[in-house]
Amino acid sequence: MKSQPRKPSVINVSWTALLVVLCGLSLAMQDAPRKPGGRGGNRRPPAGEQGGQAGIVKPAMTDTMKAAIYADNWFAMYINGRLVAVDSIDFLPHNVVAVDLLPEYPMTIGVLAKDNADPKTGCEYGRSIGDGGFILKFADGTVTDASWRAKCVFHGPIDGDTANPKVRAEPLPANWFAVDFDDSKWENAVEYPEERIAPKQPFYEHDFKGAKWIWTSDLDLDNTVILRKKVEKPDATRRWTTKPDLDASCAPEVK
Ligand SMILES: [Ca+2]
Ligand SMILES: [Ca+2]
Question: Fewest Cβ atoms closer than 10 Å to its Cβ: which of 114, 188, 203, 210?
């Protein structure tokens, strides 16, 4: 049977033309100028986002600074009230924690540092007395030294008596790491020579030049200490204009 030649369908032509027009319209919308950072198209910015991000300067990695921290034996560090670094190894091997920080001045640093000591006896490895030690250096020149404030919250064994060990402990002061905490009654940190601390090899693989080993006045029997320092840099300018929107306050308080 001979097939009949098909006549071009008017309806088919019309649908094809409509498709071409729609595709062209879609491409034109994609090329339309976008608000900076926006998704373009006809997305309606949610309330509070109108105005886009014009004029906003976000911090870049070039705004951050390197920090190196070493504790004998463990530490947690807060900056401007927020927990920013925790020693990833409890006590041994002795390690350097190196992190990137986004500096904001004035910068209040709070450090909880612990020697390896049994909470009940103040001793380690049975009846031994261990010593503490803490040092840090930031790339902005911030270092540990005797200008830091220090307070002991766990001391022992009292009088070094390992035969009948007793300890003295008190809770951490509330908000001891906060910017507005009053540390004026704390003693100044005491500097200790490197030979007294005898740091392990990782210490020599990082830049701690100019930084001092610090602790409270009793390097052996003060086992848990808190340290604070406020770094003022009145001439520092902040290049970025944004601040965090997220709520990081859920970071646990370390005890
Ligand atoms: Ca100790
Ligand atoms: Ca120790």
Answer: 210
Tokens 């001092």 locate to 212
Alpha-carbon separation of residue 246 from 70, 116, 243, 250 (angstroms): 29, 35, 9, 10
Distance 241 CA to ligand 2 centre (A): 42
Region for residue 62 given its phi and psi (left: phi exceeds 0; alpha: psi -120 to 50; beta: otherwise)? alpha
Report CA(130)–ligand 2 centroid distance (Å): 5
The rounded Å distance from CA 118 to ligand 1 centre is 9
CA-nearest of 105, 115, 104, 108 to 78 is 108
Cβ proximity of 213 and 135 under 8 Å: yes
Band of pLDDT at residue 52, cut at 50, 70 and 90: low
Q: How far is the CA of 123 from the centre of ligand 1 (A)?
A: 6
pLDDT for the residue numbered 251: 67
Ligand 2 centre to CA of 116 (Å) is 5
**Helix, strand or coil for residue 142?**
coil
- Nearest ligand to residue 118 Cα: 1
When pLDDT is averaged across residues 167-194 and rounded to a whole number, the result is 97
Q: Give the predicted TM-score (pTM) of the model.
A: 0.79
Q: Which ligand is nearest to the CA of 116?
A: 2
